[in-house]
Amino acid sequence: MRVNVTVNGRPMTADDVWEGESLLYVLRERLGLPGAKNACEQGECGSCTVYLDGAPVCACLVAAGQAEGREVVTVEGLAVGGGPSGETGLHEVQRAFVDAGAVQCGFCTPGLVVQAHALLAGAEGVPPDADIREALAGNLCRCTGYEKILDAVRLAASRRHPHPPP
Ligand code: FES
Ligand code: FES
């Protein structure tokens, strides 16, 4: 089947999509967007998190056909336009993960960045740690012990100006 989806603001089409294919597979293997990672393919790890019509979802759990006519924003899309650190093009949340040392192997990072972005889009100031932990509870990291990730979210929140949704 053919799937038409707007990804990071651009209309895209994937052809010959198999009925059982996930949105994650289409993004990575058909549309050339490897940012969202495939770790568990079972909705357990959050490494594949993308926005679907403005809400974070596990792309491995979304059938490609369900994305027909909808809007997807991936971690690559957050970088477009960047944040205040315009010289690199990184979004301020992405920059904070780098600056806080929250990226080790990096496999979990795209999903955490999208989920943290969603948290900050709906929060004023620096969210309490309990809110950050709850928001990121579905995103597993095997490397960092999570403290640097909390630091990154606090750093992004403390640096930001009003934080528009994607
Ligand atoms: S790959 Fe989707 S939740 Fe793990
Ligand atoms: S940095 Fe390796 S899994 Fe999180």
UniProtKB/TrEMBL annotation:
Keywords: 2Fe-2S, Iron, Iron-sulfur, Metal-binding, Oxidoreductase. Residues 1-78 form the 2Fe-2S ferredoxin-type domain. InterPro entries: 2Fe-2S-bd, 2Fe-2S-bd_dom_sf, 2Fe-2S_ferredoxin-like_sf, 2Fe-2S_ferredoxin-type, 2Fe2S_fd_BS, Beta-grasp_dom_sf, Diverse_Oxidoreductases. SUPFAM superfamilies: 2Fe-2S ferredoxin-like, CO dehydrogenase ISP C-domain like. Gene3D superfamilies: 3.10.20.30, [2Fe-2S]-binding domain. The keyword tRNA-binding does not apply. GO terms for molecular function: 2 iron, 2 sulfur cluster binding; metal ion binding; oxidoreductase activity. This is Carbon-monoxide dehydrogenase small subunit.
